[in-house]
Amino acid sequence: MDPFLQAALDQAKTGLASGGIPIGSVLVCDGSIIGRGHNQRVQKGSVIHHGEMNCLENAGRQRASVYRRCTIYTTLSPCPMCSGAILLYAIPRVVVGENVTFLGAEDHLRAKGVAVEVAQNPECIQLMREFVTKNPQLWNEDIGV
After folding, report:
1. For residues 89 and 61, is the Cβ–Cβ distance under 8 A?
2. How many CB atoms lie within 10 A of CB 110?
3. 105-141, pLDDT tens digit by residue?
4. CA contacts within 13 A on the Cβ side of 77
5. Sheet of 115-118, strands arranged across
6. Contact 96, 28 (CB under 8 A)
7. How far is Cα of residue 93 from the mean position of the Cα atoms in its chain?
8. Residue 39: which residues within 8 A CB-CB, separation 6 or more?
């Protein structure tokens, strides 16, 4: 597995272990991780701390020139909110662990020129399938259903 996708998966597992939703993300610039995060809606009582949003928060303020050199890795297809942040900061590439359990705004990202690559990683798929089966109400809350 790609080491950056593995780092995002490790973040997802950290989130699950702390009672949250297992979605993780890392922000990579010039071959180095500059931000890590995981969904912390449950842990922080937050409406915005999805994996990608938490990752961007943890990366701290960056210059626009930095974001334009980044790739964001996420274990799950990014929702419209997270996709909006990716577009706002002009992050040119997204690597998605899987979009089987949830298909986010990938088409919107692609339409705006973002390169979206989907790995369909079996471990990412299994992690989300198990979580959704065990926690359907929490999952539906997270995606606004």
Report:
1. no
2. 12
3. 999 999 999 999 999 999 999 999 999 999 998 888 7
4. 18
5. 32-38, 24-29, 70-74, 93-96, 115-118
6. no
7. 12
8. 12, 15, 20, 21, 22, 23, 24, 49, 50, 51, 54, 142
Q: Is 91 exposed, middle or buried (0-12, 13-18, 19+ CB in 10 A)?
A: buried
123 is catalytic: no
Alpha-carbon gap, residue 113 to 19, rounded angstroms: 36
Q: Which residues have a Cβ under 8 Å from the Cβ of 31 and sit 6 or more positions away?
A: none
3-class DSSP string for the chain? CCHHHHHHHHHHHHHHHCCCCCCEEEEEECCEEEEEEECCHHHHCCCCCCHHHHHHHHHCCCCHHHHCCEEEEECCCCCHHHHHHHHHCCCCEEEECCCCCCCCCHHHHHHCCCEEEECCCHHHHHHHHHHHHHCHHHHHHHCCC
Residues 17, 145, 51, 88, Cα dihedral to 10°? -170
Tell me the pTM.
Answer: 0.96
Choosing from 52, 98, 106, 141, the catalytic residue is 52
